[in-house]
Structures are given as C-alpha cells and as structure tokens.
C-alpha cells in the first residue's frame, strides 16, 4: 500500500539542515511502501486437443454411484481404452464443485486416483494427474487437503522425462500450495524447494513458465519469510538453493529471453525482495545490474512494438528495482553502471509514455521507481534536467491523485538538492502547474505542492514574489487548512521586496 506522506509547511525560519532532516524522515516513511503483492490465483491447464475431441460430451455433475463406477472401470476395465475413457469422464465431472465435494467424501477415492497416478501405464498416469489437477483448481481448501496423499508423487514426477507431464504436475502443485497451509507443511519436508530448483534447468519453456508459477505461489505464503525463503539446512530454502542465480539468468535480456517465463520469475523475485530476508544477497548476485539492463531492454521493446504483453513484465521489474533501491546503500547503487547511466531515466520515461497510452494504472509503478532513484541521487536529478524531462513529468499531474502526488514528490527530490537545481526548475512550466495543483481537491496533492513551494522559496529568492504575482496567494487562500500560510506569504513578499 502507499504510505501517507503528510507534507506541512513549517515557519520559514527553519534552517536548510532542518528542512533536509525533515525530508529525510518523510522519505524514509514513504520508501517503506511498495510492498504490494500480486493476489494469489489458480490456473487451469487443459489439453486443447482433448478438449476439442470431447466437445460433444457434456460435463455433468456426478453422484457417488457414477464416481464409483468410473473409478472401478479405470482400475479394472477390460480394455485400456475403456479405462482411459472412464478417467476422461471422471475428469469432466470433476470440473463441477458439487462433484468435487462428493468425490472427496467418498471413501478410498483419492487413494484409487493415487494408485492410477503411480501405475506403469503412461496414459492412465496422465488421466489420473488431470483429475488431480481439476481437484487442485477447487476454491475449497478441503478439496486441496484431500489431495495430500498425491503430493509426494507429484514431486517425484518433476524429475521425469515428459515435459508435458512435468508441466501438469507443476501447475497442480502450484494450485495446491496456495490453497492450504497444511499442504505447504507437507511439501516442505518432502523437498519441494530442491525439486523446483532441479526443474529450473529444464530446456523446455513450458516447464519453466509452470515452475515460475508454482514457485510464485510458494513465495506468497504468509510463512514464506520465516520458513521458505531464509537460509536453512542444505537446499531446503529458496535463498539456500540455486534458484535466485538461475532466476536472474532467466531475466537477463538477450535473444533467449522469453516473455512468459520472465514474467513469472520477475514476480518470484518481487516476492523474495518484499520479504526483506536478505536483499543484500540478491544485490551480490547482480540483481540490480540485471534488472537495470532489463529495464533498458523493455524500453527498447516498447519502441519497436506496442505488444500488450510487455506491461506484464514491466510491472514486476519496476517493483523489484524500486524495492531494492530502498534496501541498498547509495554507494552500492553507484557501483552498477546500469543504474547511474542517464539512459535509465530516459528508458523510464519511454515506459511512462507507454503506460499513459496503454495502461495508465501502471504509471505509479514507474513514478515510484523515479522517486527512489532521485531521492538520494543528485546525478539522477541532473539527468531529469539535462534531458528536459520536467515538462513531460508535469503533464502527468492531471492523470490521477496518486500520480500527481508522486510527480510532486519527485519534483521535491529535485528541489531539495539545492539552489542550482531550483534555478533550473523555476519558473518555467512549473509555476502555472503548481498554481493548478493548489486547486486540486486531494489534500495530499495540495500538501505536496506546498512542500515543493517551501523548498523553492528557501533556495530561490525570487520564487515567492513570482508566485504572488501569478495569483498564488488566492490559490492558497482557497484551502481552509492552509489559511494560516497567508501571513507567511506576506512575510515572504516583504523579504523578497527588501532583497
């Protein structure tokens, strides 16, 4: 969530050091934000060819007798085709929540399915796995917990040779993981982390994408920061395994970068970073460098094509960078050329323009990163000015209240750097824009505007007089909560006149 940053003007007798100290405190509070996590979800993997072949069959709700008949045929049918067809009919019935509930109440049903899953006939194994997959997609935690006897076998099959079967097992595990803590308690000692770490070296993109999904579900568990992510014995934790290094390799821009795979693992990285367990380790592994290069690559991609899928990757990449910057010391960031190059700022504005046209809801993500880049870095503030990006930034003020507050926060970061920066900001297009923001109904945007004004008044002697000449006083007086500023502005006017 966004933390609320309360900007209030204090008496102007406060010194420059006090103002800087106050801004540092506000910035520290603000930068604790951006810990949002993607809502958990489930995915249903169905074979398109099978679906088309079965299109004529209508999936019906099954009763106990019908379920028992299909299980009996799947176990003891006289012909293999008959056994396979029974599993297909059972799977179609399990698409209904009512059938799922009946199935798990039926004694021995899961055990029969597990027996078929472990048979030596590949098609029967696949049919049983698809039935389990339908059950895993249930919204009822009791259904997921009923599948517990199958989890150890699903993990075992992750080391198999069929990429399609591994993919199915991964999506099923991912669905089960997110539904129940009981499932996760069983999977961890069974070795789910080492099993997933082994899968990440698969040459099959479908397996890697399914792996990213399953891992992201595991990382979103409420107990992940304590029990799943931190270092533990051997490879039983995510940070203790080879997963982080391989994830970063899969996110490295280049001809082998796959959008679907990259999206999944970018979210995985985001959840690890949000846990704040050991972000220094990720930086040591080159996370900042990789993400910086990926940001540049994304900006180049949106210039070449307006593919609607690119924002799916841009969102977690921006969040990862934003949150890592709140952890890393300024000196550590400076050691990565990709993050002190002004191309990063240019790339970010290319993405902001892309979001504005295609996905305005993602504008706060880009502006949050810009805020974290400029908060403690004069070089990034210099890049904003030298690349003439203040006016494009101001054009975003009217998008929404959240966006306007972030834009003003970035401008405060620039102004806080001192007189030389304020000289470039003022007056230019900033003055009319500030007069407009003071008429906003959003109190947070108004408060941020006032903070920016105070910084400008402090560092730019002529700013107060110019502001008053442009009817700034009337704009201030329209806000009851800042009516007390009336006398201070008059005092500023007198000071400016005497100067």
TrEMBL record:
Q: What Gene Ontology molecular-function terms does this entry list?
A: nuclear import signal receptor activity
Mind listing the GO biological process terms from this record? protein import into nucleus
Gene3D superfamilies for the chain: Leucine-rich Repeat Variant
Checking InterPro entries in the record gives: ARM-like, ARM-type_fold, Armadillo, Importin-a_IBB
- List the keywords (alphabetical): Transport
Q: Does the keyword Membrane apply?
A: no
Taxonomy, superkingdom: Eukaryota
**IBB domain segment(s):** 1-52
Spell out the PANTHER family in the cross-references: TRANSMEMBRANE AND COILED-COIL DOMAIN-CONTAINING PROTEIN 6, TRANSMEMBRANE AND COILED-COIL DOMAIN-CONTAINING PROTEIN 6 TMCO6
- The name this protein goes by in its record: Transmembrane and coiled-coil domains 6
What is the source species?
Catagonus wagneri (Chacoan peccary)
């Amino acid at each position: 969530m966004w933390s609320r940053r309360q900007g209030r003007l204090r008496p102007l007798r406060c010194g420059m050091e006090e103002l800087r100290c106050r801004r540092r405190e506000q910035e520290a509070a603000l930068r604790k934000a951006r810990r949002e996590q993607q809502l958990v979800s489930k995915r249903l993997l169905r074979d398109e060819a099978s679906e088309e072949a079965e299109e004529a069959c209508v999936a019906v709700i099954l009763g106990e007798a019908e379920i028992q008949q299909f299980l009996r045929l799947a176990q003891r049918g006289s012909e293999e085709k008959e056994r396979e067809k029974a599993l297909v009919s059972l799977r179609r019935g399990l698409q209904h929540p009512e059938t799922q509930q009946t199935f798990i109440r039926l004694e021995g049903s899961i055990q029969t399915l597990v027996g078929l899953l472990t048979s030596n006939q590949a098609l029967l194994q696949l049919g049983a796995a698809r039935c389990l997959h339908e059950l895993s997609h249930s919204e009822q935690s009791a259904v997921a917990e009923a599948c517990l006897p199958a989890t150890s076998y699903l993990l075992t099959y992750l080391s198999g040779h069929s990429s399609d079967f591994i993919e199915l097992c991964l999506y099923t595990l991912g669905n089960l993981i997110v539904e129940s803590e009981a499932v996760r308690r069983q999977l961890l000692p069974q070795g789910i982390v080492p099993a997933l770490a082994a899968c990440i070296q698969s040459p099959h993109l479908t397996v890697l994408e399914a792996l990213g999904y399953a891992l992201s579900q595991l990382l979103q568990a409420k107990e992940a920061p304590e029990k799943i992510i931190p270092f533990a014995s051997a490879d039983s934790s995510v940070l203790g395994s080879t997963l982080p290094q391989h994830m970063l390799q899969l996110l490295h821009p280049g001809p082998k970068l796959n959008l679907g795979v990259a999206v999944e693992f970018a979210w995985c990285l985001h959840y690890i970073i949000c846990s704040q367990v050991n972000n220094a380790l990720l930086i040591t592994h080159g996370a900042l460098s990789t993400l910086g290069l990926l940001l540049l690559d994304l900006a180049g991609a949106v210039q070449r094509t307006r593919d609607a899928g690119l924002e799916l990757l841009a969102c977690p990449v921006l969040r990862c960078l934003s949150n890592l910057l709140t952890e890393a010391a300024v000196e550590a960031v400076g050691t990565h050329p990709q993050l002190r190059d002004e191309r990063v700022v240019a790339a970010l504005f290319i993405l902001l323009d892309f979001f504005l046209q295609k996905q305005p809801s993602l504008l706060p993500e880009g502006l949050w990163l810009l805020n974290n880049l400029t908060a403690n870095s004069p070089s990034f503030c210099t890049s904003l000015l030298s690349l003439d990006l203040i006016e494009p930034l101001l054009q975003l003020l009217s998008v929404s209240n959240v966006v306007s507050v972030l834009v003003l926060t970035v401008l405060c970061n620039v102004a806080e750097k001192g007189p030389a920066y304020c000289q470039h900001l003022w007056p230019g297009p900033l003055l009319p824009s500030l007069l407009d923001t003071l008429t906003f109904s959003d109190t947070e945007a108004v408060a941020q505007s006032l903070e920016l004004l105070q910084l400008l008044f402090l560092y730019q002697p002529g700013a107060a007089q110019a502001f008053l000449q442009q009817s700034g006083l009337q704009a201030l007086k329209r806000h009851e909560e800042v009516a007390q500023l009336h006398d201070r502005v008059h005092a500023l006017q007198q000071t400016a006149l005497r100067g």
